[in-house]
Amino acid sequence: MEINKKSQAGSLESSDLMVYVEPFNEIKIEVESSVSSQHTEEIRSLILNELEMRKINGVYVKIQDNGAMNLTIKARLKTALLRGAKNGN
Amino acid sequence: MEIRLRRTMLYIPGNNPGMLQIADIFGADSVLFDLEDSVPHSEKDSARDLVSNMIKYRAYENIEITVRVNPLNTPYFEDDVKEIIAAKKLQAIRLPKTNRAEDVDKLAKLIGKYEKENEIAIGTINIHPMIETALGVENAFSIATSSVRVNAITIGGQDLTADMGIAKTKSGEEILWARSRIVMAAKAARIDAVDTIFADINDKNGLIEETRLIKKLGFTGKAVINPRQIEPIHKIFTPTEKEILWAQEVIETYDKGLKEGKGVIALRGKMIDPPVVKRAEKIITISKLGK
Amino acid sequence: MKNQLGIDIPEYVENLGKLIPYKGAFKRIKNLQKEDLRLTPTKIRTYLPERNKLVSSLEKAIERSGLKNGDTISFHHHLRGGDFLLMKVVETLDKMGFKDLTIFSSSLTRAHQNLYEYVEKGVVKKIFTSGLRGELGKFVSRGKMDIPVVIRSHGGRARAIKTGEVKIDVAFISAPSSDKEGNLNGVRGPSACGSLGYAMVDAQYANCVIAVTDNLVDYPNTPISIPQYQVDYVVKIDRLGDPDKIGSDSTRLTNNPVDLVIAENAANVIYNSGYFREGMSFQTGAGGASLATAKYLADIMEEKKVIGSYAIGGISSYIVDIYKRGLFKKMFDVQSFDKGVVSSLLENDDHIEINADFYANPFNSGAIINNLDVVVLAAYEIDTDFNVNVLVDSHGYAQGASGGHSDTAATAKLTIIVAPSFRSRIPTVVNKVNTVITPGETVDILVTERGIAINPRRKDLMENLKGKGLPIKDIHQLREKVEIITNNPKMFEFTDKICGFIEYRDGTIIDTIKQVVEK
Question: What is the sign, positive or negative, of the torsion defined by CA atoms of C32, C37, C39, C43?
Fold first, then answer.
């Protein structure tokens, strides 16, 4: 999968997160969490896994987490990536 | 055939992770994740991704999981069906705006295709056609019997009155015939009939009144939009202590009478025949399931 | 040495002294006669009748109080997040050049979070409190205090004052209403806060008492919560606090669907527990699920025509409403949670202000919570041994308060913890809580939205609650369910450094606050 445009998914509601995605020449991940600063590493590795699974090598992913469960993070990331890959996939 | 209570089916907006992740704590008999009306067009994809992940990873317990997909004639329909079946733990799909048996057919074929693709036993996923047009009401029986997957039909009050070009009222006389028609079709097809939502979440008495009415008509349950609506509905659909005692007595008397070879069996002067026993047995079954 | 919970407690800590490890909730109390404790000697002060107590500034009052470097000064937190006094006093002490003071407050709120700056400056050396919030809590959890903080329960604080374990050199009282002689109450004035229950103990046992008010009224000021014979100086300042942050007009009931499910479960537990009866006494917190439990319980009481004897604790206007419905005969108030309560204190004879000694001190001839039937309490975390943490948050920082949690849990006949099984991605039901405030042996039931777990010690409750349609589960089972949902997030790491001690109500050490490893 190739990310060829800026996109986003999710919300800033509690138990949700915002995922911002944009084309980039390598993998760059930024995680911010309002409820569990101790878990940003875990979220980061979850995202790395998902990117690897989709064979994405260049993308800038920014996460603003408001206490989302892992499955929600995965879902929002998927939506953002699919939106960002449109026209080019 | 499975015996399952469907006294309440709780709608949860499909794009709301906070609500989706706690959907099973309110004691509803079924949850109804919504991809249709509660999700704006711009979020159809994200709600679909979220709902399928919830079904897949969030270990819901003791609750029937159903999803209302977008209607057949929308660009979202096929993706909805595909993704939520791939999540594996789905029990039924609610098909909005079902007008005729062929609509159910189309969905049934698609379900079959994705059941196969996902190595799910064929026939696992049920269909709950939602009848919410005048045409749908007229075709109620053929819809109810259109597929072995159909184990409940439901009525959508708002859309139905809109289709009829009239207003929906709280007392609901305008949909009385449609309700009765749908119940009769369901009874004839030996499936469940689930009523439409009661929109005013603050009017508990109104909800109770309407639920009493639809229970009398023969509905087996009702869709709800707020957790607070669950308990009053369950109360009405759950047999009372008195009804349970009566039912137990009927069954005992009948069994005893059979053993003794009696031709006519009566309880306190009232004849007990097979339909009465059947009703008593149903009361016992529901009271056990409702715990 | 290890305490009863297996936690390593040093025998002696420089600047804090000898520590006693926790040995069980009532172990020390049972053997207290052998210790032959005495009330702390308090300095007798006397003045000639014509003396003027009014002093023109805080500085002058402090000068006259005889405060020295290294002394202990006390405060109370009835003005909650709206309190100006504590920070104003500390600023003043800094300007006057004081060092190495001990801050001994009934609790510390967000209004006091900048206290850490004065620790860094050397003005403050030790902090004894019930709670820590904001930057100060982070500062403590980062291990920045040279001397560990000591966390006490409300009952434990009253105990420590009376035994002299903590001797108050100067008590500062935020007085929403005072006359020139220092007759004080909290029910009138722009900074009205209601009960002055915690400050009442300070005023009685401190070697010097400075009352600070923004509402100087004609003599004599009544009602009298703290009498003039305990007060040495009266200082008038412009503003004691920010009314908006002292308390809202009323405490609203939660709409949170999870809290409501929990509350309904909890009310049903109480109803079926065997303690639901005429004359029942009751306490609940002001948190979402706790307060909502009171709502559902009150509805059942009304339906079953059962009248309770008293409600106690922090009183919120919602509890006042239940009292007004005739469902409880009395209210005992050590701390008022909102402004609706303040007017009730004035209007209702059955609404009685009590001090912290009366409320919860385990070392007296009988605190009122000894007669408590049912208490409903919250939790950040609860473990499979039913130990409860209400202090350390999901970031690993001390951001909470011990309060009356362990006091009421110990004495109530039925102690119910209400908590969502997880918050955001963080499980509430865990194998081992981060920091024990309330020991599991004093907790009877955990009520979550996903199931109810009964402490196996309470076979009687298991019997009473069986077959009542309640979702009862083994606590291990419940924990596993939650773990599946939350995916078992990795918990944070701590070093071995001790940043604080959790003192149990009887003065023994039950746990420590650990230094969090920040990433």
Answer: negative
Residues from chain B that touch A10, judged by Cβ atoms under 8 A, are 46
Nearest-CA residue of chain A relative to B42?
A9
CB pairs under 8 A between A and B: 46
d(CA C214, CA C104): 23
In this structure, is residue B233 part of a structural domain?
A: yes
Looking at the structure, tell me whether residues B151 and B167 fall in a common domain: yes
Q: Does A67 touch chain C (CB under 8 A)?
A: yes
H-run or E-run covering C155: helix C154-163
Q: Verify whether the Cβ–Cβ distance C490 to A68 is below 8 Å.
A: no
Domain that holds residue B214: 8-237
B1: in domain: no
Alpha-carbon distance C91 to nearest alpha carbon in chain A (angstroms): 32
**Is some CB atom of chain A closer than 8 A to the CB atom of C488?**
no
In chain C, whose CA is at the least distance from the CA of A34? C395
Which residue among A15, A78, A83 places its CB closest to the CB of B17? A15
User: Does B61 sit within 8 Å of C484, measured CB to CB?
Assistant: no
Query: CA dist C261 to C265, C292, C293, C446, C451, Å?
Result: 6, 9, 9, 13, 10
B140 contacts B182 by C-beta, under 8 angstroms: yes
**B49-73 pLDDT per residue, tens:** 999 999 998 888 889 999 999 999 9
Q: Do C261 and B227 touch (CB under 8 A)?
A: yes
Q: Which of B25, B58, B291 sits opposite C450 (nearest CB)?
A: B25
Please tell me if residue C490 touches chain A, with a CB cutoff of 8 Å.
yes
Strands B8-13 and B221-224: parallel
Residue C487's pLDDT band (boundaries 50, 70, 90)? confident
Architecture of the domain made up of C52-246:
3-Layer(aba) Sandwich (3.40)
Chain-wide mean pLDDT for chain C?
A: 95
Would the CB atoms of C484 and B59 count as touching at under 8 Å? yes
Interface of A with B (CB under 8 A): 9-10, 13-16, 68-72, 74-76, 78-79, 82-83
> Å from B224 to nearest chain C CA?
14
CATH architecture of the domain with residue range A7-84? 2-Layer Sandwich (3.30)
Any alpha helices (H) in C399-489, and if so which ranges?
405-411, 459-465, 475-486
DSSP E strands in C357-444: the ranges are 374-377, 381-383, 388-389, 400-401, 414-418, 422-423, 426-427, 429-430
Asked if residue B248 and residue B215 are part of one domain, the reply reads no
Task: Give the up-direction half-sphere exposure of residue C275: CA atoms within 13 A in the CB hemisphere.
Answer: 24
Cα end-to-end distance, chain A, whole Å: 6
Rounded CA-CA distance C30/C51 in Å is 47
Give C25-42 pLDDT, tens digit per residue. 999 999 999 999 999 999
Of the candidates A73, A13, A65, A69, the one whose C-alpha atom is nearest the C-alpha of residue A34 is: A65
- The C-alpha atoms of residue C279 and residue C286 are separated, in whole angstroms, by 22
Tell me which DSSP letter residue C24 carries.
-
Q: Are B273 and B253 in contact (CB under 8 A)?
A: no
- CA pair distance C502, C519, nearest whole angstrom: 26
Burial class (CB in 10 A: 0-12, 13-18, 19+), B171: exposed
Closest residue to C258, CB basis, from B25, B58, B59:
B25
CB proximity B26 to C under 8 Å: yes
Helix (H, G, I), strand (E, B), or coil: what is residue C390?
A: coil
Asked if B201 and B232 touch (Cβ cutoff 8 Å), the reply is: no
CB distance B189 to B202 below 8 Å: no
Task: Give the model confidence (pLDDT) of A3-48 as tens digits.
Answer: 999 999 999 999 999 999 999 999 999 999 887 666 788 899 999 9
Alpha-carbon gap: B42 to the closest alpha carbon of chain A (Å): 10
Q: How far is C376 from chain B (nearest CA, A)?
A: 21
Number of domains in chain B: 2
